[in-house]
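Next comes a single protein record:
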Amino acid sequence: MNQIYFLLTSLLINSMVIFDFKQNSDLRDWRVVDDTVMGGRSDGHFKLNPAGHGVFQGDVSLENNGGFSSIRYRFDTKQVKGFSTVKIKLKGDGKRYQFRVKSNQYDRHSYIYHFQTTGDWEVVEVPLSDMLPKFRGRSLDLPNYPGQVMEEIAFLISNKRAEAFSLALERIILD
């Protein structure tokens, strides 16, 4: 029932697809960014599985002051005014993740929303107005996500512990 609702919502209501994973999806604009950029030892990977889902998996390490792994997807500027929610169909591993948005891919800060996965296929709804501005984990004295334009989305795991992780993605849309 949940999958039917998600499909109907994305097709019948004025929605914008950010990414719809399929067996032949081109992942060239997705890139993994781990704490290795700062000397850490985390190791994330992103690939398509045989069912056509994007799978972000790997190991977070706390060695050398590490502790995060992420995937980022950059795209041409999307006008998002009038949309209020990002809906993400995913299957997590019971761990907590961040969904991140940038208005401009060159901004140093991101707008962040934390979500907990259940281990089952689910639709995570992210209210754009609840996305908080942060830089390297620090809150900024800026308004929440303004919801005008978008040039990058990301998923990040950073739970302050060494752990294996796996997050499967099926579809990301704006409603």
Notes: The chain has a mean pLDDT of 93. Residues 80 and 148 are 5 Å apart (CA to CA). The two ends are 19 Å apart (CA to CA).
